[in-house]
Amino acid sequence: MTRCYFLLVGLLMTASLQAQVLQNRNSIRLGVDLTSLDAPDAVGLRYVGRLAHQFRNDRFLVAAEGGYITKTTLNQPFNEVDPGPNHRERFTADATVFFDFLPHPRHALRLGAGLSAWYRRDDTYRGAAALLAPTGLQGIAIDREERHELNTGGHVAVEYEWLFDPRWGVDVRLRLANLNQAGISSMLGTGISYRF
């Protein structure tokens, strides 16, 4: 009879402990990525928001994220004429499927791939030329280029996340996006996530 009581108490304790584990499959993430753009001097901060859902025993994660980058760089004057700054802006959207290699409740090491669509709005300085006349310098011609285009492509990502609380986590990640005409952008970032 004593064994039955111990067995019953053990089963009730196990059931109550299991009932306290929260199964939060959705998460929202806010982060910042140091992102390279198409020009060597264009490295800026990309502010990112992500909504994700975990499934298949938390081994797979499907994520949709949006981001924004703005970067302004100065140019050298040409014959004491300021050509104005370069301004680059991106509105980004990414969809990614991740696989978690660590079956651990607090740690995740994910590798993923997906599709990217980035809207590019650039106003950049291309060059300058002196306009000469028989009497001397007539003026300076500044050549600027404006680009408004949608660039699509694929990306790969690896990230490590640590849950310091059952609902809160921090992560670091590395991403590479091949955006066809816009070239390859690399991103190194960190963020904080909340599970619900």
From TrEMBL:
Native organism: Larkinella knui
Write out the entry's keywords from A to Z: Signal
Q: Which residues belong to the signal peptide in this entry?
A: 1-19
InterPro entries from the UniProt entry? OMP/PagP_B-barrel (IPR011250)
Instruction: Specify the domain of life of the species encoding this protein.
Output: Bacteria
Q: What's the protein here called?
A: Outer membrane protein beta-barrel domain-containing protein
